[in-house]
Amino acid sequence: MHVVDTIFALSSGLPPAGIGVIRVSGAAAGDALLALTGRDSLPTQRKAVLRRIVDPRDGAVLDDALLLWFQGPATATGEDLAEIHCHGGRAVIRAVEGALAAVSGLRAAEPGEFTRRALINGRIDLTQAEALGDLLTAETETARRIALANSGGALRRQIDDWGGTIVDLSSRVEAVLDHADEDDIDEDSILDVLRQQCRALAGAIARALRNPPVERLNEGINVVLAGPPNAGKSTLLNRLVEREAAIVSPIAGTTRDRVDAAVRRHGVGYVFTDTAGLAERTDDPVEAIGIERARVAAQTADILLWLGDDAPPHVDGLTRIIPVHPRSDEAARADAVEGRIRVSAHTGEGIEDLWALIESESRDLIPRPDQAAMNQRQRDLCAACVSALDDAAVERDPILLAESLRAARASIDRITGRADVEAMLDSLFSRFCIGK
Ligand SMILES: Nc1nc2c(ncn2[C@@H]2O[C@H](COP(=O)(O)OP(=O)(O)O)[C@@H](O)[C@H]2O)c(=O)[nH]1
Ligand SMILES: [Mg+2]
Question: Where does the GTP-binding protein TrmE N-terminal domain start and stop, copy by copy (predicted)?
Answer without folding.
Answer: 6-123
